[in-house]
Amino acid sequence: MRTRDENKEQAIRQQAIEMIVKYGLEGFSMQKLAKAANVSPATMYIYYQDKEDLVLSLGTEVFNKMQLYSLKNFSSDLSFDEGLKLQWKNRAAFFLENPLDVQFIEHLRYSPAFRTISHTIKNSFKAEMGKFVHNAVLRGELVQLPFEVYWSVAFSPLYQLMKFHTQGESYASSSFELTDEVMDQTLQVVLKALKP
Amino acid sequence: MSTLLQNRTIHIFKTNIHDQPDVNAIASALNNLPGILKWNVAIDDCDKILRIESTQTEPDEYIDLVKTLGYSCEELTF
């Protein structure tokens, strides 16, 4: 009987994320991972049923990590301005500190695995964000909008800034860095747009 | 190779179970074997891995069954 080596397992999971980011989901296989991690393919299949099982497990872990990070110091009772500012701050910090995880999620986003994951991940995040929006509307701090419209205005500008940051440039300038000033300037415009 | 985890043995075999029709062809035989808790074939793997979780520690019965059904089957080692 073999015992499960948690450190080794975590290292292999990290390696899997790196390989998926580098080669894409299609170019990634359990065999390649086993080779890179210097373990036998049989060992990989002890812990995961197949490639899909591993990808689902990795995706769920990264999503939960991302959502936990996003809820740091957050409460659905915060005023809308304060709450959205904290969400931007937390999400930007996660993005900057975990670029590999973010790229990994991007690879998953258009795969069948993504649907499965979004159905299985904990709903506490969705519930907390839903309550936050609901409270803000009740207090008259936020205009009532369909979810997709709200989300596009409230968060897409941040994600676009992060994209420019990753590219290191924008359409207009050859160097771009996401600073607190740029983020705050954008946030103020967003807050203004969402006022009733 | 086999590994004991939480009172179940995981058997890993290299096969030539190639595609979904092949999987369907072995499915009823495997589903009818007592002791099997769960099984799947990773047909996207070049080794066409058959993975069986079972209360049974010996792999021979599985190897014989899969061979009888016309496929190759060998236990993978570390």
TrEMBL record, chain A:
Keyword Manganese among record annotations: no
PROSITE patterns in UniProt: HTH_TETR_2
Pfam families per the UniProt record, alphabetical: TetR_N (PF00440)
GO terms, molecular function: DNA binding
Family matches, as InterPro entries: Homeodomain-like_sf, HTH-type_Tx_Regulator, HTH_TetR
Boundaries of every HTH tetR-type domain copy: 6-66
DNA-binding residue intervals: 29-48
Protein name: TetR/AcrR family transcriptional regulator
TrEMBL record, chain B:
InterPro entries cross-referenced by the UniProt entry: HMA_dom_sf
Lineage: superkingdom: Bacteria
GO terms assigned for molecular function: metal ion binding
Protein known as: HMA domain-containing protein
Organism: Solitalea agri
